[in-house]
């Protein structure tokens, strides 16, 4: 029994005990079965394709323990068989739990934890050539906590923190010569004021991030001072914006001090009951997505849309784009174990996804999906096309 299985069994035992103790429970279940083909199953320049059969289970529940305490639990295991890949059978896990508790009339506590067993993201890869690091799986756990405190009818305080850890299956990749395992500590505090109830509120705050990779590879520290606004323009349009400045220290071959802008913004538009759009963008310092650098300056954009064509047919689409700048000053202390490119390095990654669903009856749906992904950068270039047909059961 591997570490991932043990963690899931422990987590599910805690979930089951909590659900049994709850006074009121709402449980939802969905099962997705999909048959498809992936033209680049590993996400590399060699572009090896394979057909696949996958089963995704989605189990969620909301539990009310009292008028002051409730919990939300979400579990999504995925089982996938790949006809022409190694290994052929893989499994992933995604388990999330959140506890909400009113400590008093003024203080509200939120605790959450997310456990994932997943494969590397499309932008992850070994920069500068050498041994390909495809087909890498990892365990990740992200624990978060926050307290909201009401100062008055218009003023609020919020403080929070988190601890995230990632451990890769391959010990040589996670520790060894690559040292891609990491721990990340976060802390934040903000003052929030409502200018117009249920319409406009502003905030000012400070965020802290400390990321440390395994061994003596290094990491980075970042302190961000920011301000922002949340706005309900009308019943169909909402938006938010955050703007600030980050003061960073990247520890690698040498300690490098730098500063950078911080931006987070998003908007949601619901023009009709059957149509919705959303978009977001951001710019910040972020942890590295490869084995050579300890940090990156990342810009990202996301767009999404959903439309119910009829009462039974729905269409969902999304687009994401990430641009990463890896400065030479961000290079890790790799001690010659991998090749470090000369100068700064650009990395671009985009995805386009479409999914159509037809409701056969109350509980059964037929689906068709398409995903296009493309990575183009100074050190690698590949794309992939993935199509699937599926059946979804909802109870």
Automatic annotation (TrEMBL):
Keyword terms of this UniProt record: Signal
Keyword Signal among UniProt keywords: yes
InterPro entries named among the record's database cross-references: BBP2_2
Position of the signal peptide: 1-21
A Pfam family per the record: BBP2_2
Protein name (Swiss-Prot/TrEMBL): Outer membrane protein beta-barrel domain-containing protein
Annotated source species: Pontiella desulfatans
Upper lineage: Bacteria, Pseudomonadati, Kiritimatiellota, Kiritimatiellia, Kiritimatiellales
């Amino acid at each position: 029994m591997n570490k991932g299985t043990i963690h899931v069994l422990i987590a599910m035992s805690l979930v089951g005990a909590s659900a049994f103790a709850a006074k009121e429970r709402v449980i939802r279940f969905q099962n997705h079965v999909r048959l498809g083909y992936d033209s680049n199953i590993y996400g590399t320049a060699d572009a090896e394709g394979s057909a696949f059969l996958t089963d995704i289970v989605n189990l969620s529940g909301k539990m009310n323990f009292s008028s002051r305490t409730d919990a939300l639990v979400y579990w999504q295991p995925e089982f996938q068989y790949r006809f022409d890949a190694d290994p052929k059978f893989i499994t992933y896990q995604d388990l999330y739990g959140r506890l909400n508790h009113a400590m008093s009339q003024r203080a509200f506590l939120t605790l959450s934890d997310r456990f994932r067993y997943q494969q590397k993201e499309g932008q992850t890869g070994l920069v500068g050539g050498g041994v390909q690091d495809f087909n890498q799986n990892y365990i990740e756990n992200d624990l978060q906590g926050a307290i909201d405190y009401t100062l008055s009818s218009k003023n609020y305080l919020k403080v929070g923190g988190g601890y995230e850890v990632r451990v890769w299956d391959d010990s040589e990749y996670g520790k060894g010569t690559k040292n891609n395992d990491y721990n990340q500590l976060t802390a934040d505090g903000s003052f929030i004021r409502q200018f117009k109830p249920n319409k406009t509120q502003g905030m000012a705050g400070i965020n802290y991030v400390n990321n440390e990779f395994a061994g003596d590879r290094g990491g980075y520290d970042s302190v961000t001072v920011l301000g922002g606004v949340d706005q309900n323009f009308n019943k169909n349009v909402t938006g938010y914006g955050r703007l600030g400045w980050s003061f960073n220290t990247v520890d690698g071959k040498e300690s490098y001090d730098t500063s950078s802008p911080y931006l987070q913004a998003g908007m949601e538009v619901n023009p009709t009951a059957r149509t919705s759009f959303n978009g977001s963008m951001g710019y910040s310092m972020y942890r590295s997505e490869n084995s050579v650098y300890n940090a990156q300056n990342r810009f990202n954009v996301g767009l999404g849309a959903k439309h119910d064509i009829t009462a039974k047919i729905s269409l969902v689409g999304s687009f994401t784009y990430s641009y990463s700048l890896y400065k030479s000053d961000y290079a890790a202390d790799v001690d010659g174990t991998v090749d470090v490119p000369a100068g700064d390095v650009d990395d671009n990654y985009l995805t386009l996804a479409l999914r159509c669903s037809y409701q056969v009856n109350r509980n059964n749906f037929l689906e068709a999906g398409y995903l296009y992904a493309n990575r183009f950068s100074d050190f690698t270039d590949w794309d992939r096309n993935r199509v699937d047909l599926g059946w979804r059961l909802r109870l």
